[in-house]
């Protein structure tokens, strides 16, 4: 599946991030724990590679707990500190600050030597659309400032936000890169980082069922009371019939059924699932 998706504001955002790097001490990268690799924008990683970073593994309430731990270790092996998080719940801001302060040890040491009393840490928050970045910022800042929703690309203007833990956040719009090939495009589509409206959702759903058959067959069986040994198409149609996604004369409404299945996955009703394995 080849996907081209690059709104004009995303090109502009990339330039804004590049120009704003000198204003911050560290990068907070919010990723989707269900797709830890695909939800990291390679262009932003390249732009910010010289800055220290902390990865916020968001939506860990929806991802496989075993895989969560494996990814935390993988990032640590790569020299990156990652924190598991559900941005909809209370965020331990002090933990983030302490980790950042440890990473920026040399900076604080130099400030102390120069008798500079400045405990503030300036952080740039980056993340692809629908990673939960806006929810994270609103929660950590105890505010309702950024528009939040399941629609990719909602936050579109640069914003500074102050928190109670000496953290200054520079918000940036969610940004994707120009073209996705193969599995990356599928993963971003499964999690709704790419709008359903520009996709063939029926084909996408069939791919998703094939993935579920291979890695999480029990989840399919428990949620839909079906036999996971059947073909993906047979499962697709059986779910449609069982859930009443019918057009006429018993014909399955594949689009309606696909929306139903993806809503179950994205809301966690299908269980805790990680698409990308560490």
Query: SSE string, helix = H, strand = E?
Result: EHEHEHEHHEHEEEHHHHH
Q: Give the biggest beta sheet.
A: 6 strands, mixed
Side-by-side strand order of the widest sheet: 4-3-2-5-7-6
Shape: elongated
The CATH homology group name of the largest domain: P-loop containing nucleotide triphosphate hydrolases
User: Number of DSSP strands?
Assistant: 8
Strand content: 5-15%
Helix percentage: 40-55%
Taking the alpha carbons of the first and last residues, their distance comes to 23 Å
What is the count of structural domains?
Answer: 2
CATH class descriptor of the largest domain:
Alpha Beta
CATH architecture of the largest domain: 3-Layer(aba) Sandwich
Low-confidence stretches are 145-156
- What is the CATH topology classification name of the largest domain? Rossmann fold
Keywords: Cytoplasm, GTP-binding, Nucleotide-binding
Subcellular location: Cytoplasm
Main location: cytoplasm
Pfam family, one: MMR_HSR1
């Amino acid at each position: 599946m080849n996907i081209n998706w690059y709104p004009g504001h995303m090109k502009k955002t990339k330039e804004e991030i590049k120009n704003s790097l000198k204003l911050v001490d560290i990068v907070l990268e919010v990723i989707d724990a269900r797709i830890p690799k695909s939800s990291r924008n390679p262009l932003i990683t390249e732009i910010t590679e010289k800055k220290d970073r902390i990865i916020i593994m968001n939506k860990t309430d929806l991802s496989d707990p075993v895989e969560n731990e494996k990814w935390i270790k993988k990032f640590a092996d790569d020299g990156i500190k990652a924190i598991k998080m559900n941005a909809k719940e209370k965020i331990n801001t002090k933990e983030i600050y302490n980790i950042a302060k440890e990473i920026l040890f040399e900076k604080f040491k130099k400030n102390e030597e120069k008798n500079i009393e400045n405990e503030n840490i300036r952080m740039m928050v980056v993340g692809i659309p629908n990673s939960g970045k806006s929810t994270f910022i609103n929660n950590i800042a105890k505010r309702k400032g950024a528009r939040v929703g399941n629609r990719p690309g909602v936050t579109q203007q640069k914003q500074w936000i102050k928190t109670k833990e000496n953290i200054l956040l520079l918000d940036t719009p969610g940004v994707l890169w120009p073209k996705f090939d193969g599995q990356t495009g599928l993963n971003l589509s499964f999690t709704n980082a790419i709008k359903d409206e520009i996709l063939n959702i029926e084909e996408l759903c069939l791919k998703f069922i094939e993935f579920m058959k291979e890695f999480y067959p029990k989840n399919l069986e428990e949620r839909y009371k079906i036999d996971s040994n059947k073909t993906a198409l047979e499962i697709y149609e059986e779910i449609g019939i069982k859930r009443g996604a019918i057009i006429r004369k018993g014909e399955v409404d594949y689009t309606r059924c696909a929306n139903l299945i993806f809503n179950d996955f994205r809301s966690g009703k299908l269980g805790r699932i990680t698409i990308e394995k560490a």
